[in-house]
């Protein structure tokens, strides 16, 4: 491997590209002014967002509305699939159609469950934070 001398005003970056049996090494010289300074501490946001019971209940309302919409969508999808059976004499076609229908209803049901669970979790967190705030005051 060839020896490269590092000049005090530059930083060396190595990039390797492999194509078959051939390996290329590219050396890029970047001025130190383009390298961001490293600090020992992580940068802290200026305004950290704090949780509050109001935010929890608002988030629960949004999640509940999405869960209700997804529930409505899931029931409509299932009713549409039930009303229109697949008409085919080919067994492979029937199996693929059944698999796709099951997958569509399953994914929709899963999304509904996720948002309903998020609603319950946010309501429980809001209640817990409300109870803690009342116990701190007394």
Offer a concise description of the structure.
The protein is an alpha+beta fold and 138 residues long.
Describe the structure using short key phrases.
2 strands, single chain, 57% helix, alpha+beta, two-stranded antiparallel ribbon, elongated, 138 residues
What does this structure look like?
By secondary structure, this protein is of the alpha+beta class. Helices cover 57% and strands 14% of the residues. It contains two helices and two strands; from the N terminus they run E-E-H-H. Helix 1 packs antiparallel against helix 2.
Major beta sheet, strand line-up = 1-2
> How would the global form be characterised?
elongated
Number of helices: 2
Low-confidence stretches: 6-15
Largest sheet geometry: 2 strands, antiparallel
N-to-C terminal Cα separation, in Å?
72 Å
Please identify the structural class as seen in this structure.
alpha+beta
Average pLDDT number: 81
Strand % is 5-15%
Give the radius of gyration. Answer: 29 Å
**Proportion of residues in helical segments:** 55-70%
Order of helices and strands: EEHH
Q: How many DSSP E strands? A: 2
